[in-house]
Amino acid sequence: MENQKERVKCLIIGSGPAGYAAAIYASRAGLKPVMYQGLQPGGQLTITNDVENYPGYPTGINGPQMMEDFRQQAARFGTDIRYGIATSVDFSGKPHKVTIDEQKEIEADTVIIATGASAKWLGLESEARLNGSGVSACAVCDGFFYRGQEVAIVGAGDTACEEAHYLSNLCSKVYMIVRRDEMKASTIMQNRVKHTPNIEIIWNSVTDEILGEHDVQGVRLKNTITGETSEIAVKGFFVAIGHEPNSKIFQPFLQHDESGYLKTIPGTSKTNIDGVFACGDVQDNVYRQAVTAAGTGCMAALDAERYLASLEDH
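Request: output the structure for the sequence above.
Response:
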């Protein structure tokens, strides 16, 4: 029977670019990190076909392969990579306690949280089926593949406006689908999209269906006032209705913003609890890129190493 309690120096929760980068640095520093991969080993990049904006891959790489490369590199330096999900935590005392799969308790001197954020989706069958084949939740990641083509984006907040404007520099036409007759975005962002000639805002509309068998060919829209449907031909469909940080189990102990993103001391990965660090998209609602996540993963491992060294000094 598996031992239900274990003590470790460094526990990493999550396995995207942030978690793996933290693991590489922590294992090279001799912290003998234990990583639990979570619900989606490899994180959001495992549902990204082509990654062309990560330095070091001149011809690009697909997301799952990139995450496998990260995993192998972390394992090579001795990271103990395990399947399992952190289901509860207790950061009220030392050592920090993390329960895995509701049964095994890990006591950790340091905890690095790299649980990421999940894109919010519309919930359509066609959206799930065509995810990665024209459907995306990241314009900065995937807009490049639709150069000179017509695309649609759903959303009405600042992020949607920002991504629509980003796409307008690449695509011949951007349809912005807005549910009501107004946006939630700040005035300056609204004005930016309204004054961009190749962005067309379609008001009072929701996505009824994404059209296409193997890739996106168009979108069927439904008018929220008249109930009438119409179709537009597009090659790319971007969902920009927000992200949900995977931070619920940590919120009773760690400071977070109103959306649930964990707060870190600026310029560090430190949370309000000594010995607990956060990196990647669970604490970054601005950039949300693989390269920035990996950078903060490196920071978290270095912060954890320095924290442990300071304990030994005392």
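The longest helix spans residues 290-313.
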